[in-house]
Specification:
mainly beta; two-stranded antiparallel ribbon; elongated
Length: about 80
């Protein structure tokens, strides 16, 4: 997977997503997700580290099967890491 991070521009009309403390709004540390299949164990996420601060825009890109949807599902609580 490739990670692209870009700082968002400040808006004078809205402070949505801006965190003056500089603390990450999202902080993932060594996230692992494994699935059991008939063919054996599949590792969808292997030690993912990610920090996103308020006001930042992040894009997750990668090939099919790279784990993009699994990562978003773990971040949003739809799925749990192993």
């Amino acid at each position: 997977m490739n990670w692209l991070k870009r700082n968002g521009s400040k808006s004078e009309t809205s402070n949505f997503g801006n965190d003056p403390s500089g603390e990450p709004l999202i902080h993932l540390r060594q996230v692992v997700k494994k699935y059991e299949s008939l063919a054996g164990q599949v590792v969808a996420l292997k030690g993912i580290d990610l920090q996103v601060k308020g006001g930042e825009f992040v894009a997750v890109t990668g090939k099919s099967g790279a784990g993009k949807t699994t990562l978003v599902n773990v971040m949003t609580g739809i799925d749990r890491s192993t």
